[in-house]
Amino acid sequence: MTPAPDAPAVLIAALSGRALAACARRGGYHPLVADMFGDLDTRDLAEASETVPGSLVHGFAKGALLAALDRLAAGRRVIGVVAGSGFEDRPRLLRSIAARHGLLGNPADIVTAMKDPFRFAETCALAGVPHPEVRRDQPPEGIWLRKRIGGSGGVHVAVSTRRGTARRGRYFQRRVAGEQISAAFLASGGRCRVLGLSRQWADPAPGRTFRYGGSSRPAPLSAARAADISGAVARLVSHTGLRGLNSADFLVREDGFDVLEVNPRPGATLDIFADTQGALFRMHLEACDGVLPDALPVWPQAAAAAFVYAPANIILPPIFPWPLWTADRQAPGSVVPKGAPLCTVLAEAPGAAAAERLVRLRAAEILAHAEGAT
């Protein structure tokens, strides 16, 4: 959908703003994007965009991001900022953004409460939702994971090999088994509507065992187990002030499940839940204003999306024909370091398993093409 010339604009701030920009544009808004990558399709989707310095681990440079948002907003009818990834451990930056432009999503105190592992564990206990034990020190028994508070994408997670007290900003979580399932949901006023469940998988690399790989929907769960997970999401939301589009990550087994975390923002599964009519973005804004939808989007086919990481340094040639089923397309001549994302690949099919097979084939195809062009 092409926004009307007089349609309002929305600021988007995220490590990668492409998926949110596409969602906003389909919803009839003019996206103004500040992110770290400045990919070709992000620029095409955005009314205007700026590439902001920072790091994937520590996030945006605060002053540079605020200045970029100010420039993008100048002279335009902006309704606020939708924040994506990169703010889970940056509450002060979120407050600064909110003070200048207004947030269309969860405020800083809600983000902090959700991403503090000990406060979140308390919320899970109050809601009666099972959650792996978390500690500041590692006991001698069991297998434990070491995590960074506010981390995302799985690269901050490692199996802990020795006992000790966690450094500042890190904690230990007991490792539990299960299939990785994510629930995308809209929240407002202690109520929620679950959009759907997706299966997630990791793409391990040396030192990054839990690196995010991709996701497919719908998740291969029984109706009863899906209802259990949706009920757990509803109980969690009833104990929080969450609003707008969010996601919750679970590990699901035959005999039960554990919730790992809530991501208080539009998450990595946005590509597979976005609809062609742009309803999802409008629903996000309406949920932020206190209104949940009576009807949810309907997706005619299953979908999958996966990140493609460079196994070695890749230099894209001056002309590189990106297939239509790719996203986050980097500019010609870009240097993609070993282990960095090359692009995202997308697929649709009659079933989730078929969509997942297709997205994996496409990932291998684009990687071979990029490596061959180097």
Task: Name a few traits of the molecule.
374 residues, alpha+beta, eight-stranded antiparallel beta sheet, 10 helices, 20 strands, 29% strand
Low-confidence spans: pLDDT under 50, at least 5 residues? Answer: none
Tell me, briefly, the overall form. globular
Q: What is the element string, with H for helices and E for strands? A: EHEHEEEHEHHHEEEEEEEHEEHHEEEEEH
Largest sheet: 8 strands, antiparallel
Annotation field: number of helices: 10
Round the mean pLDDT to the nearest integer and report it. 92
Helix content: 25-40%
The end-to-end span amounts to 36 Å
Describe this structure in words.
By secondary structure, this protein is an alpha+beta fold. The chain is 29% helix and 29% strand. The strands form 5 sheets. Strands 15-14-11-12-13-16-20-18 form an 8-stranded antiparallel β-sheet. The protein is globular and about 55 Å long.
